[in-house]
Amino acid sequence: MIKSNQRFFNFLLVLADVTVVTASLFVAWYIRFVSPLFDDGVRTMDLGAYMGLLFIIIPVYLVIFAIFGLYRPYRKQRFFKECQEIIFSNIVGIALIMAILFTGKSINFSRIMLGTFFLIATLLMTIERGSARKILRTARKRGFNLKYIIIVGAGSIGQTFANKIAEDRQLGYKITGYVDDYYHKSDKDGIPILGTTREMNEILEDYQVDEVIIALPNTSYKRIDEVIDVCEYQGIKTQIIPDYFHLIQGTQPYFDELDGIPLINTRYIPLDKAFYKSLKRSLDILLSLIILIIVSPIMIVTAFLVKITSPGPIIYKQIRVGMGRKEFWIYKFRSMRSDAPKSDDNGWTTANDPRKTKFGAFIRKTSIDELPQFFNVLKGDMSIVGPRPERPHYVSQFKDEIPKYMIKHHVRPGITGWAQVKGWRGDTSIKERIACDIEYIEKWTPWFDVKIFFMTFKAIFKSGY
After folding, report:
1. Which of 24, 43, 135, 432 has the fewest Cβ atoms within 10 angstroms?
2. What's this model's pTM, rounded to 2 decimal places?
3. 422: helix, strand or coil
4. How far apart are alpha carbons 43 and 33 in whole angstroms?
5. pLDDT tens-place string over residues 37-87
6. Which pLDDT tens digit goes with each residue over 426-453?
7. What are the GO cellular component annotations (predicted)?
């Protein structure tokens, strides 16, 4: 029943997507060629010619939507994740359409109209999918489209899972009961005990369920095998909750594989994936080159003023700890006197640090002293956005004082970061800074980097970042 409901719902989604794509193309054509927004008199093709594109656009988009997983069940997928997939799929879709038009030498189609179509389609599809979720969750709250499950194991693992289901009725799960060898046939917190694992076959014949959730400790592997065998005999899907799940709660764990052996990664780090890692590295190189070209006059003037305002080298180098706990030399314009005491190197730099020169105070306040770090990015030591790297002295200290401090070294350190734009910079709370760093590492997306990048400018102008 659940599968047939899912197929019907997917059919409705496909119809809705076709409607959205068609409406988006029509609205984009109207905005470009009829509305007063573009009063330039351009009329390349009539509406019929553009509507003919639908014979190409609709099949291409539906295939791309399927590839990006936009027709997967909604029960376990977050809406934010779906929005990302909608944006990426529309980017790929419009790129393919433009490539097809270019290859076919169809040069009369308006690029402005196609760009408008992309924006409208992305917006309308996001609204469409959000509305579909709202309708589904409302229906599930009222008892429709429910998935009936049995939990094998009424211990702490099973109870935790049952509480999650009870707290969020929108998930659409209904617990038929527990199966447990150590509880009498009564109930546990209002959920009936249906019997023991030895009675599993009879229980599944008596109750119509869609899934069986196994919440037994690993020491009960024989009973787990027996339950799975019975469920497969009855044709019912099983899922297992590992009894060590408390060790990985809140870290978005995911499965990996080594030559057929399943592995559970206890912490989800998007930048561990080759595609995301390559994407971020490519953008780092491209943007660093562009930024260095743009700010090169500022860097030349800064180098000259550093040299004439105080004796010593122009560039200050310091050892920092980067990705994989590897040490590297970080570059900055020198902002302190070259004869500053070496013993102070392990102290925080304060706002009124006597070691700073007058010009050094200015370039630190405006973050101009950080510009040479774009060369660190080109070398591969750093990224434009990421957790700020720290000196070995503090790494050794904080790894013993702050839980999960060393997680920040799973990714390349950055010139700017989530902690810094939120105000946790310099002599501030290390716990708050690490919490921000871990949040960034686990929730990284290209859009998150863009957000932090532009927030950096706001932080600089607001408080001398």
Report:
1. 43
2. 0.57
3. coil
4. 7
5. 776 655 555 677 777 888 888 998 988 888 877 877 655 566 777 888 899
6. 667 788 888 899 889 988 888 899 899 9
7. membrane
